[in-house]
Design goal:
Blueprint lengths: L2 E8 L5 H7 L6 H9 L4 E8 L3 E8 L2 H13 L14 E4 L1 H11 L11 H15 L5 H20 L9 H13 L6 E5 L3 H12 L4 E5 L3 H11 L2 E3 L4 H5 L4 E4 L10 H11 L4 E5 L16 E5 H67 L5 H29 L3 H13 L34
Length: 451
């Protein structure tokens, strides 16, 4: 029986300096797939590599041989030599492999549970593997089901509804004040990594105009150009306060860069329009007294931290609901996969018995030439009825238990007892004439003792 395996590493098992050694760009997937599929062990394969994980999903001829082939392929990625150790790798097989993929696609295994980006990465990996003709019926079924699982998790739970990063929480708070952010304007003070991430969230929320203020204007210009915004120096902040709706400040200054007096003057020009100030700097960039001005809403890093902490707890509760979906879908895939072993066995068993019946009927008919057509038909019907009665019990039992471990065991036993590997999928297995009477021996199959 084929095996479904996944071998890889992730943020759970390996630090970033190890993960970056083995990470593959999507453009390198096809070459990696071709190299993996070139060996005899791997029948199907998908490569998934992101900043937080590098994983090989495969259908292999055997467990140990397949695992060794995947490990060799993973450690053969450019840059992996010497940096990746055995303890950095995880290996899952069968239901555990399916469950892992479902968790990954549903963002239950992500560094930030519920973040949606990984689903797109799974889709892309599946698409590339299909283009590279590395996907067969098993991984096609597995990955399509993984996408269905992710969709169910998104629609049946609220795992992605709660902001769990400071920058995203800031944008969600802005939505509570202003409603939809389409057409709004925002000012980012400070051109650091958090500022860039906040700008991405603001742009995704529909903010029309983005301004960037920084002590070094060249840094502000670089960020603004990357995000389609406009740059300015710190002296331009006061003028911008009168025009924008949202301000996110995160400089490294030791003194406030936005003072109460600046905000008061800006609010006079705004004619009472609300202003949302988010201070995620330590030390703080915005004087705390600004929060007491009418229609000015000020949140600092501690405020956002409490929001994020509460949302993490809510996401954890939703993750429990999502896990129930994953468990149910894992069981469904396992039933389907194990059924792949029993269905061919049922077909092969029927073909074996029909071949024996046809051969024996032909032999007997040759000695009963005196029978008329009606009696000959009765002999044929007798043989068919006998085979049906003999097979009814075993086939019914196999169908009933075919979607579980016991079904696989029964299928394996039947293949051995009736030597089905020699004749599966054929109808030319009728025995030659042997001793007459009940219990006449059947000719051994090719390669068997006495053949």
């Amino acid at each position: 029986m084929a095996h479904v395996l996944v071998v890889g590493l992730s943020h759970h098992t390996a630090p970033v300096d190890v993960r970056e050694k083995i990470a593959l760009a999507p453009g390198a997937y096809l070459e990696a797939l071709a190299r993996i599929k070139a060996g005899p062990e791997v029948k199907e394969c998908v490569v998934l590599s992101t900043c937080n994980r590098s994983e090989l999903y495969a259908v292999t001829e055997s467990y140990h041989g397949g695992r060794e082939a995947l490990e060799h392929a993973l450690l053969g990625f450019e840059g992996a030599s010497g940096g990746v150790k055995d303890e950095h790798l995880f290996r899952y097989e069968g239901a555990a492999a399916a469950r892992h993929l479902f968790r990954v696609a549903s963002s239950l295994d992500a560094m930030v549970v519920g973040e949606p980006q990984v689903l797109g990465q799974v889709k892309d990996a599946f698409k590339v593997a299909g283009e590279g003709q590395a996907v067969g019926p098993v991984l096609d079924r597995l990955f399509r089901q993984a996408l269905e699982v992710a969709k169910r998790v998104r629609t049946e739970t609220e795992i992605g509804a709660y902001a769990v990063s400071v920058s995203y929480a800031a944008v969600e708070l802005a939505k509570k004040i202003f409603g939809p952010l389409e057409g709004r304007a925002a000012l980012i003070v400070g051109a650091g990594e958090t500022g860039e991430l906040t700008m991405k969230h603001l742009r995704a929320a529909g903010v029309a105009e983005l301004l960037v203020a920084n002590r070094t204007e060249s840094s502000a210009r670089e960020l603004a150009e990357a995000m389609g915004g406009r740059a300015m120096g710190l002296p331009g902040i006061e003028g911008a306060l009168a025009k924008v709706d949202i301000v996110v400040s995160q400089t490294g200054a030791t003194e406030p860069v936005i003072l109460r007096s600046m905000v008061e003057r800006a609010m006079k020009e705004r004619r009472g329009r609300p202003l949302f100030l988010i201070d995620i700097a330590v030390p703080r960039d915005i004087e705390s007294a600004c929060g007491s001005i009418y229609n000015v809403f000020l949140y600092d890093i501690d405020d956002l931290g409490r929001v994020v902490a509460g949302n993490r707890e809510r996401r954890a509760e939703e993750a429990e609901k999502a896990l129930e979906i994953v468990q149910a879908e894992t069981a469904r895939f396992t039933r389907w996969f194990e059924g792949l072993e029993t269905v061919p066995t049922i077909v092969a068993l029927r073909e074996r018995f029909d071949a024996v019946r046809a051969g024996e009927t032909e032999r007997v008919m040759a000695k009963l030439e005196h029978l008329n057509e009606r009696d000959k038909k009765l002999v044929e019907q007798y043989g068919e009825a006998l085979v049906n009665k003999l097979l009814h019990g075993p086939m019914a039992q196999l169908r009933q238990t075919g979607a579980g471990e016991r079904g696989v065991q029964l299928a394996g036993a039947l293949r051995i007892l009736f030597r089905l590997e020699d004749t599966a999928g054929t109808t030319d297995a009728a025995p030659v004439e042997g001793n007459e009477g009940e219990g006449a021996p059947v000719e051994p199959g090719p390669g068997e003792p006495g053949a």
